[in-house]
Amino acid sequence: MTAAQAITPPVPPAPPAAPAPAARRLAAGTRLAWLHLRSRRVPAALLALALLGGALRAQLHWHLMSGGALAEQGPMVIEAGAAVLVAMTAHSPFGEAERAAGRWLPYLRLGAALALTGIAIGALQLGVTGASVPGGVLVLARNVIGIAGIGLLASPVTGGLLAWVPPLGYLGFAEYALSQAWRNPWTWPVRPPADRGAWICAVLVFAVGLAAVTVRGARTSLADNG
Amino acid sequence: MTAVALTQRTARFRPARALRLEIKHSAVVWVLPVLAALCYVNAYRTAAGYPPIWTVRASVITGANLVFFSVIAAGIAAWVATREGRRKTGDLLATTARAAWARQATVLAATAFWNVLAYLAGVAVIYIQTALQATWGGPPLWPVAVGVVGVAASCALGFTCGTLFPGRFTAPIVAVAVFAAWFAGVSAANSVNPNDVINLTSLKGAPALLVPAVGRPEDIEAGVYYHVPPDVSIAQVMVMGGVLLVMAGLLALLPAARVPGIRGLLPFAAGRRLTVVALAGIACGVAASATAFWMAGTGQYSLTTGWQIPALHDAADGQPVPYTPDCTGSAFTVCIHPAFAPYLGAMSAALQPAAAEIAGLPGAPVRAEMTMGYYALPAVAGTTAVYDYSPEYEEYGEASFWATPAMARTADWEQGMQQGFITWFVSGPAEQDSPAPTPAQQAVAIALLAKIGASVPPYPQFSQPGTQSGASSVSTTPGGSETQPAASAAQITAAATRLESLSSGARRAWLAANMAALRSGAITLAQLP
Question: Among A56, A134, A221, A61, which residue's Cα sits nearest to residue B83?
């Protein structure tokens, strides 16, 4: 080997063709969404929603909560559980750092909350397929939407990890309203399926909660990492 | 004092100080407003709608109140149990000299302290309100014991779940699971309660009795004429106390509670004494719950004292409670049990005009007395000078002592009592054996009630749709051993109007002459003047 040969660098292999910008953006976006969902424990929430759907099915099949107002109160508890799961996925383990770095964060929050609410309704409806749930799918959907809205609305104040407390408090109130046959629209769990006022209240609460979570996110504390 | 002694003293574990610190910084404090709101809505308001009878009012504290306190207590305890994982203090705490289970037990105790304190505060509010209104008896304490043990057991259950499965969804899932479990138990418990008079005496107890029932209690007289035996409450305490012991034992045994303890991961590696104590606690808990479950299955229903469990029953609990009735009025005396003394004024205001209207007629009573028994019918009119009325029996007026004293002071309630009284007076044996008075008896009762300004009772003919236009029924009269012809509401009303339009003397004269025949069912609608 001559000296000239020794100092001549080898020709590097040609780089692979770069992916098209659109495909690259799509892959990055998918990865970003997936990481966002994982950080919010959405896969675990989906598993829990499936379990709740099964629980609702079991409750209706074996008449575990029947007789009087319990026939309505029982499904309401399961629906509240599903709604609470939606609200609790608002918690972020990253805190301020995530807020400062991610400009897509509000959209991710919005999409995650909307998608999970829809999945919650679908999972519960799937669980009661072939069975009769009081009020039908309309009441089921309204309860999930409204109670999830309460949880989302509470999460900027209580933090995502404690966002289950206000919805369960409202559930306790709704159980009393049901036993007392109250008719106010803001006691939507006790209203008929087609009650317009109840729908307006439930959707309004959900919209406000969704907006609050989208814009501000759940309150985070560096001490809490769930 | 030497330096060594000082060091030893400061190194000694002081659980009271640790507990005080945990209580001071407990997260349960932030949940107290929710608990207060739930207690107000579900317990206080419900209790305020019940008559001021201690046993009846106390039913709410083991009903909805216990359910909602248990739900929140279990959830918040699960949340608290995950604290070390959330805050990533495991490695830091692993270097402390005290085992993890002791630290966890302190946290659990602080959580249970706040929840039980909140529960007791709610009970105190309800009991103070009752004490201000009740006129007889005292606060039942066994329901309070049931509630306290129930809340503590829920805390232990939630805490153990939170320790076993630390995660963000543990707290709500535990809370919802406790909620659903309560409702499933309540559904089972309600199914064995005596709602059906026909099957009452054949009812047997069931393990579902271990779950406190939710909703209006079955018996307004519970604890009034007879002491309520604490049998069921004892069984409930045993079951929930058993759960508490099992959870505490599991917590001490769980590797999760020992990491980052000082002795390692294996259950038997953290000290033989602790392991033995924990296993003994679990065994005792299982034994207590299983025994209570078995005993509840042997329960039997008594018409006077409610559910009894033979193995726990004390015969002294079945003795009647002596009392002196409160009475008012001279010509017609109205007496009432002192527990219902707030109703005496309303009862007297209702019955005095009705008694004056029928005074002097054959079989007219001179006294009204409250007697025990939902299922015992009053003595037949005409054979007694005393009108017996029961606090449970909702007669034609549908007015009962389930109304609060304030509601009893309304015209509707008084008219209801008058309707029941006059219907009893004109019906005689027919009321005992027939679902409704005969048309003639109805017409007379309507006429007498109209004279004192009371409305028409909801007799079958008047309760059906379109009653005024001619709905009719056939009335069987056992006393007269014949079947009266059908009569519509309009025909009965017309006959009542004719009788009412007579002069007072003529009406009284006809009633005095025909009251016995009317009661026996021998008089038809057409025979009325």
Answer: A221
